[in-house]
Design a protein that fits this description.
- The chain is of the alpha+beta class.
- Strands 1, 2, 3, 4, 5, 6, 7, 8, 9 and 10 form a ten-stranded mixed β-sheet that branches.
- A hairpin with a 2-residue loop joins strand 2 and strand 3.
- The longest helix has 8 residues.
- The chain is globular, with a radius of gyration of 17 Å.
- This is UPF0301 protein ACEU0G_000033.
- InterPro entries: AlgH-like (IPR003774).
- Belongs to the UPF0301 (AlgH) family.
- It holds the Pfam family DUF179.
Length: 188
Amino acid sequence: MSELSTSLAHHLLVALPSLTDPTFARSVALICQHDDNGAMGVLVNQPSEYTLGDVLAQMEIVTDDPVLRGQVVLNGGPVHPERGFVIHDDARDWDSSLAVGEGVYLTTSRDILEAMARGEGPRNALVTLGCAGWSEGQLENELAENSWLAVPADADLLFSTPLDQRWQGAASRIGVDLFRLTDYSGHV
């Protein structure tokens, strides 16, 4: 990143209709880290085939909470799909956490899942498998090519908006109606 550019950490990237890569089409990514070496984020609107119960069972973590077991695990991106990432709103000192922005954290350690299984975890949490990564300058190039729209992150959108409404919901935060864009016209 040059001195004139700004970190997009704690922003949402909203895929514009021109982005047709099936991995990222109609996706919303929370950028967790962005510096001179590139960017890292997690997709926050693509359900995976797994539930949190599946993930906890694989990790041999037991919970009696049927709602927690039924929580959808998200497809966080194509990088490290075997690795779990928890986006949450709990500032406690978990073993491996990154403050993404005001009131939003990313944790990759087992202790947060164990706390969730005991009913002692964050009030709000999204669990993803995998992440997305951009090499040095790649994200800036994709933004210049109009592949993404950058929007300030919003806890309400992350934790309260239904998955199928996050794509348009994120864009509408800055007044953009994705269904009215030229590349989207005529597509159902």
